[in-house]
């Protein structure tokens, strides 16, 4: 019988994390590497990924390998090149779709271009990465983890964002809701291939820059039962669960790490 340590081990696995050197992506990479996986960090800022890779290898005492790759999720050719390189590195066991970028917008200020960018970045890119990764994931009966958001299944409270520069754009939640549904679709149709697909919906994890607005952060933290914002390391437990055999009987699920935001 496997112990919990056996189930959580990712030794001899390889994971690709889009946006792997970012705010939450860094802790996702740390988690997978600490569990024994080789990690591939992919984003437009390859130098930032390279620096993070060196940090990860040092943290893990050389027990794992970390590779930086260039990936522009707004460019189909870049996605294809990235996954060709992944194949040359030996393929994937775990795909984590995490990367995001976009503008702050209200319903009044958002343009067609901003809307289209957000849908392309947050939803269409997940579809494209899954399509490119699929042959290798089928071969290895792998795992897909999509990082979504609490705003994929609940609406922002307009009282939090009214009159400040931290507005949550309508395109963001719409795209993340699409990723949650796409996750469920994949979980169903990839089950015969032994591929498990889940998503993780973080709650309020504002960046260091956003946290400079103390009044906004206090309002944001007060919206959930725990009464505070999340810290990046607090996604590590859910990531470890969903990317390992500790969740071998879980697929199609949306796990919320939100301080209880959606509980009331």
How would you sum up this structure, described in words?
Helices cover 42% and strands 14% of the residues. The chain is α/β, with parallel strands linked by helices. The chain has a seven-stranded parallel β-sheet, with helices on both faces. The chain starts with a helix and ends in a 7-residue tail after the last strand. Strand 1 (14-18), helix 2 (25-34) and strand 2 form a beta-alpha-beta unit. It contains nine helices and seven strands; from the N terminus they run H-E-H-E-H-E-H-E-H-E-H-H-E-H-H-E.
Keywords:
seven-stranded parallel β-sheet; 42% helix
Low-confidence stretches: none
Strand content: 5-15%
As a whole number of angstroms, the C-alpha radius of gyration is 18 Å
Count the E strands: 7
* Secondary structure: helix percent: 40-55%
Largest sheet: 7 strands, parallel
Total of DSSP H or I helical runs spanning 4+ residues: 9
What is the arithmetic mean of pLDDT?
95
- Spatial arrangement of strands, main beta sheet: 3-2-1-4-5-6-7
What's the helix and strand layout?
Blueprint: H1 4-8, E1 14-18, H2 25-34, E2 38-43, H3 46-59, E3 66-70, H4 76-88, E4 94-97, H5 112-140, E5 143-147, H6 158-161, H7 170-189, E6 196-202, H8 214-221, H9 236-243, E7 254-257
Short précis:
The protein is an alpha/beta fold and 264 residues long.
